[in-house]
Amino acid sequence: MMIAATLILVMLVAVVAMGLTAGRRRPPMVDRESASTSAVGPTAHRRPPDRAVARHHQPRDVDPQLGIQLDRWVAAGLLTPLEADEIAAHERRTHPAPAGPVTAGRPPATVSTRRIPVVAEALGYIGGILGTVGLVLLVARSWDDLATPTRLGLAGAAAVSLVIAGWMVNEAADPAFARLRWTLWLAATAATGLFVGVIADRTLGLEPDERIALAVAMAVAIESAVLWWNRPRPVQHVTMLGGFALATALFVEEFAGEVTTGTTLWVLGAALTILGMRRLTTLPIITLAAGAITTVAGTLVVASGREGLGFPLVCVDAAVLVGLAVTPSAQRLPTERIVLAVVGAFGLLQGVPSAIAWFAEDAGIATGLVVWSIGVGLVAVAARRRICAAVAIEVLGSVAVIGGAAITGIQSAGVATLFGVATAVGFVMAGMFPGRVLMSLFGSAGLLVFVPWTIAHYFPGEDRAPLLILVSGALLVAIAVLLTRQGGRFRRELGGDRSSDARGVDVDAEEHPAEGLVQTR
After folding, report:
1. For the stretch 8-46, what's the b/e string if a residue is b when 16 or more beta carbons lie within 10 angstroms of its beta carbon?
2. Exposed / middle / buried, residue 474 (Cβ in 10 Å: 0-12, 13-18, 19+)
3. Measured over all CA atoms, what is the biggest interatomic distance in the chain, rounded to whole angstroms?
4. What does the pLDDT read at residue 66?
5. Residues 6+ positions from 396 with CB-CB distance below 8 Å
6. Phi/psi class of residue 385: alpha, beta or left (left: φ > 0; alpha: ψ in -120 to 50)?
């Protein structure tokens, strides 16, 4: 009964896919010469390009702005009339007109033909979800009682039918059909993983469970690679890279420990990162993201085996990713910077607190000095304003400087208080220079932390409470006055207008705007 229901479900999926494929019509091939002639008239080909006078705009069945631009380029001699007409014909074929009132030259059937792929995609998703849920509920009740051949038959039939259904969907016809094919093949990959898992568990008797996971990961990676096959298919691209990374880690772990496994993963991730940055794959952004994540995962695996070695490696790897994101480069796209920055920030959140807690327990002063030095370096790099997100790097460096001074208190409160007060005062003084207004803000915050701490450390007893209240109130008043005096600087420097600061001119908020201008020759 169960096998019959499964076969019926498989046949329904195949029939629906065949119906979608048979019902779809390929767009007719348009001859370039006839399309261009119908767009602008038969005399357009015989008219030579005029570089001096722009010809009058002739209506084309394309976006009006594109038609005006084509006319300008033809008038400037950048395009011939034939080339402009071919571009217009290409845009008509690849970008049909949106839904709206029917105008001259716009086919009335455009709206309905455009909605068909979206409806087919939605029906495919709904049918796939319902079929998968029904199959899972049907099999889950008696999965433990099923024989091995029955399990293999169910998983294998589902995998094969889903691969065939996805293959019958023409992804080149419409983006909706492409997404439908990717989804069907993703479900097929999951069924293949179940099929291989049954073989590894019930037939081969592999133990422990890591070996079964290795077999499943290899099967998923290989099938995804075949379905991907250097095509722009993001779902299969992700499952392929993820499967290979997991299989590599599980395979190396069979023969070596965490350090070797993590190192191998890091090497694989570094190779993928380089491939992504050089754009040597169909979807470089996915390769770059997978490589960056794999490098962080590799260092975390090393840290699980040797914390003293792994935590610094996590921090270094994450810092390199952030450095690649903020380093100026005309060849790096904004999306690539975002991916590197996000993965690097995640690595820093995982590695920095763990590394500080690990090393500060026995060497608080040394750990604090290292963090403080790193923060000073970040502030110095950000001060040059030659990197991307310089303000964010300056904030990160300032936090590291103040935090590094506080970390020394784990080993010696006396050193931390004096060192922290000196650091905060230095920040306030450095914030008086043009372009460094953020440092005064962090210096003020540091004073609010370290001055009461210093009083509490060097003046123990109940009599210190009035002194703490007095000093804290005085600090708050002083910081409030400082912020009111530098309010204009916050707006100018953080708003991106540093022209006056670059010349060393600080225009007060009450002055007339013309009084702070310096005329240069």
Report:
1. ebbeebeebbeebbeebeeeeeeeeeebbbebbeeebee
2. exposed
3. 100
4. 78
5. 375, 378
6. left
Radius of gyration, CA atoms only, the chain:
33
Per-residue tokens: 404 = 């590094």
Alpha-helix runs per DSSP H in 459-507:
464-485, 487-494, 499-502
Give the DSSP letter string of 194-259.
HHHHHIIIIIS---SHHHHHHHHHHHHHHHHHHHHTTSS-HHHHHHHHHHHHHHHHHHHHTTS-HH
Distance CA 449, CA 441 (A): 13
Per residue in 314-343, pLDDT (tens digit) is 999 999 999 999 888 778 888 999 999 999
Question: What type of residue is 177?
Answer: F
Is the sign of the CA dihedral 112, 115, 119, 124 positive or negative? positive
Question: Which region holds residue 451: left if phi is over 0, alpha if psi is between -120 and 50, else beta?
Answer: alpha
* pLDDT of 12 higher than 50: no
- Domains of the chain, by residue range, sit at 35-93, 363-507
The answer to whether residues 266 and 317 touch, using CB atoms and an 8 Å cutoff, is yes
CA distance 326 to 343: 13
For 238-273, write each residue's pLDDT tens digit. 999 999 999 999 999 988 888 999 999 999 999 999
The string of pLDDT tens digits covering residues 197-248 is 889 888 887 777 888 999 999 999 999 999 998 888 999 999 999 999 999 9
Q: Are the C-beta atoms of 439 and 431 separated by less than 8 Å?
A: yes
pTM of the model: 0.66
